[in-house]
C-alpha cells in the first residue's frame, strides 16, 4: 500500500495559491481518475482510498496548516502500517523555477516546512518527494507573501502543463517504476 500526500493549506483563502500546488496535483488526479475526497477527522485530512494501476493507494490532503502536515501523514501511515519508503509527498519548492519538477527518494526538506514536519515526525528523510517549482520569487516580495500568493494569469498555461506532468509522474511511478518516473519528472 502507498500513501500519496499533496501539501497545502486548508480553506478557501489559500485555494489556488503557490503553496497549495500539492493539493492541485491530487485534485487533478481525482478529477481524471474519478474519485473524490472525504473528510477524515482522525487523520486531520481529506482522504480517499483507491486503486491506481493495480496498487492500493491512499491519497491524503492534510487539513492542518502546512507546518503541521506531518500530523496527518503519520496518523494515516500508522493506521495503515505504511512504511516511509511507500510515502510520496508532493509539494511546492521555492528554489525551483515554475515548470521544473524534481522526484527524489530521500533527502532534506530543502526548507519546505510541511516536508520538514513530515520528516521530523516520521523520524526519517527516506520518503519519496515530488517537488514542483514555484519560483523564481521577485526580490521585492517576501517569501511568505509569495508562496501564499496566487499564480499570475500569464502562468496559467505553464501551471496546467506542470500539473499534467506531475499527474503523469505519479502514474508512471505505479505503471512502471521509480527510475522511469524520476527520469520523466526530472527531464525538461
Question: What would your notes on this structure say?
Answer:
Helix 1 packs across helix 5 (156-175), helix 2 (69-80) packs parallel to helix 3 (113-122) and helix 5 runs antiparallel to helix 6. The longest helix has 20 residues, at 156-175. With 188 residues, the chain is of the alpha/beta class. 37% of the residues lie in helices and 25% in strands. Strands 2-3-4-1-5-7-6 form a seven-stranded mixed beta sheet, sandwiched between helices. It has one domain: Peptidyl-tRNA hydrolase (Rossmann fold). The protein starts with a strand and ends with a helix. It is globular, with a radius of gyration of 15 Å. It has helices spanning 21-33, 69-80, 113-122, 143-147, 156-175, 178-186, and strands at 2-6, 38-40, 45-52, 55-62, 87-97, 101-104, 128-135. 38% of the residues are buried. The chain is built from six helices and seven strands, in the order βαβββαββαβααα.
The name of the CATH topology is: Rossmann fold
**SSE pattern, N- to C-terminal:** EHEEEHEEHEHHH
How many distinct folded domains? Answer: 1
Counting DSSP H or I runs of 4 or more residues, the number of helices is 6
Query: Spatial order of the strands in the main sheet?
Result: 2-3-4-1-5-7-6
List keywords for this structure.
188 residues, 6 helices, Rossmann fold, seven-stranded mixed β-sheet, alpha/beta
Write the layout of secondary structure elements.
Elements: E1 2-6, H1 21-33, E2 38-40, E3 45-52, E4 55-62, H2 69-80, E5 87-97, E6 101-104, H3 113-122, E7 128-135, H4 143-147, H5 156-175, H6 178-186
Parallel strand pairs: 1-4, 1-5, 5-7
Antiparallel strand pairs: 2-3, 3-4, 6-7
Amino acid at each position: 500500500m502507498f500513501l500519496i500526500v499533496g501539501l497545502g493549506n486548508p480553506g478557501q483563502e489559500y485555494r489556488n495559491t503557490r503553496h497549495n500546488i500539492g493539493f492541485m496535483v491530487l485534485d487533478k488526479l481525482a478529477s481524471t481518475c474519478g474519485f473524490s475526497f472525504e473528510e477524515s477527522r482522525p487523520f486531520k485530512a481529506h482522504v480517499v482510498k483507491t486503486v491506481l494501476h493495480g496498487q492500493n493507494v491512499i491519497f491524503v490532503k492534510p487539513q492542518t496548516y502546512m507546518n503541521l502536515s506531518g500530523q496527518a501523514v503519520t496518523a494515516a501511515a500508522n493506521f495503515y502500517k505504511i512504511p516511509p519508503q511507500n510515502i510520496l509527498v508532493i509539494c511546492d519548492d521555492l528554489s525551483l523555477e515554475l515548470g521544473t519538477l524534481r522526484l527524489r527518494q530521500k533527502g532534506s526538506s530543502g526548507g519546505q516546512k510541511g516536508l520538514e514536519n513530515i520528516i521530523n515526525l516520521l523520524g526519517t528523510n527516506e520518503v519519496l518527494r515530488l517537488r514542483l517549482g514555484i519560483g523564481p520569487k521577485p526580490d521585492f516580495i517576501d517569501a511568505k507573501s509569495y508562496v501564499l500568493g496566487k499564480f499570475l494569469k500569464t502562468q496559467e498555461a505553464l501551471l496546467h502543463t506542470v500539473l499534467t506532468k506531475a499527474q503523469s509522474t505519479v502514474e508512471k511511478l505505479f505503471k512502471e517504476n521509480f527510475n522511469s518516473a524520476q527520469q520523466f519528472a526530472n527531464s525538461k
